[in-house]
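Let's practice the habit of predicting before peeking. Look at the sequence and jot down your guess about where helices and strands might fall. Then scroll down.
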Amino acid sequence: MNHTAPIFVVGMPRSGTTLLASLLSAHSAIAIGPETNYFSRMWKPLTRGRGLCDWEAVETTLVQWLEKPTLQSMDLPVRQLLDTFRETWKTGTLTHRFILSHIMEQYAERRGKAIWGEKTPEHFMYVPAIKRVFPDARIIAIIRDPRDVHLSLVKVPWNRGNAFNHALQWRGYQILSQRYQNLFRGYYMTVRFEDLIRDPRSEMKRLLSGLHQRFEEDMLVRYRQEPLFDPQQEPWKKHASAPIDAANAYKWRTQMADEEIGIFSRVCGSYLTRYGYEIPGESRFRSKKALTGLDRRALLWWARTSWRVSRNRDPWTDQPMGLPQPDAMQCVD
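Done guessing? Here is the structure:
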């Protein structure tokens, strides 16, 4: 195993990915960059087109991607990068691995770190693609009680859907997580948010051991000194740079209506039990509450995704999940 291979932090939005990434980035050998959304903004649109064969399409997508605020916060030499990628494309050797690693290696080098990492929650849905592009990559997925995830999601401006949508999404993530653990054994790790804030020292020791790195005591303080987000642009992440508080868990017990608790009990049932989350015996499922505010488009997307996953197919390409595919241009006239 490559001990300096890249690290991808993933998980359902509002599950604690920013805290986890900040703790990892506080390690003297690891630099976790801001959210790049590379696989949704670059890999997906290009894969659905001619791949990396059409330079005009690649350049257009690159420019749009590099304009993303979190990419701009990395202070990248955009013109120089585009020239480098174009020259590499001319040789027929441009790959997704080269594009992302070229940028992230520079980011890590400027911080004096040997290992680069990336934190984009939605990359959870692209783990098979990540493993095709970076076969040596280590994936760390964070899991949080879905009821607390829901309470956090309803407070952010970009949220869509209701409790039923969020329950289905969380359940879908756990189904995929089981697939990933089987397919990418040794390269895919999970951590519960509740365990991380209850005993950050033990959990970080365990995760770093899986990354073949030693735990550093001052990580638990240093993570607050260099936030991985702009509090002006993303105020909902401000708690990620606050002292770790074990009480920041199971808020649903006092803040969630019984009808919504019933939705999560019904939809997430066995997976709640699997991860050690309680299921109240008195909560009831009400179909009317589940339909109010339902995002039907998201529901249909998850239905399609669940169907593909049940057939062991990739959620995006509908190809056999885990099937090795070369990360190369392979252009055919």
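How did you do? The two ends are 38 Å apart (CA to CA).
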